[in-house]
Model the fold of this input.
Amino acid sequence: MLQRLQHLLGIENLTREQITFILDQSKPFQEFQLHPLKKLATLRGKTVALAFFEPSTRTRISFATAAARLGADTMNLQAESSSLKKGESLLDTVRTLEAMRPDGIVIRHSSSGAPHFVAERLEVPVLNAGDGTHEHPTQALLDALTIRDRKGKLEGWNVTILGDILHSRVARSDIQLLSKFGTRITLCGPAMWVPRELESLAPNIHREPRIERALDDADVIIVLRVQTERMHEPALAAEEFILGYQLPAR
Done:
């Protein structure tokens, strides 16, 4: 029997069976997206708090849309309008949200570990929508679902992750997830953005600085944007990055 999850904080601690179960459960909802009336009662009477302490457009809208289509109400908190701007702590803010008795909190934060910090102190289920450079589990699950839909399975593929891997929480979650299915992973990008220690995240990982060789045997290519907002060191010039790592037409 699968262990029921109280929170979804990352991919690292999920089992292969849990991941497969989550992906399997998504299938009916994928088909539902094709219906003219996109409204279910699955979460009727539930309230989801969207606590976005970091600017977001696609992720926030995706969660809001999912909650609405499943019948849930939402409470929205965004960084630019939150009490954090007035000096209130993260814990004080989420405890205020908890007092409004939501059934779950979706949190996005610029600090790695923030969702874990919140989950340890609240009774409400917490879902990580991205924390610093640590993880972005729902994006990894979506990437895995896309691969499985297009390729028929997750097992045994050669996957190349291309771009700014050092600063990418999506890359870390993708690596954690795909490695559980025996995927061979190639990391490709400028040397300063693909440090050697990334090879220790999971088995069957190797670095390849030359894009031609990284793409040569790839069954799946995951392309990452440059995370300029997370960089403390000078960024590589855009022209130089494009020249060396632009994905060519195939």
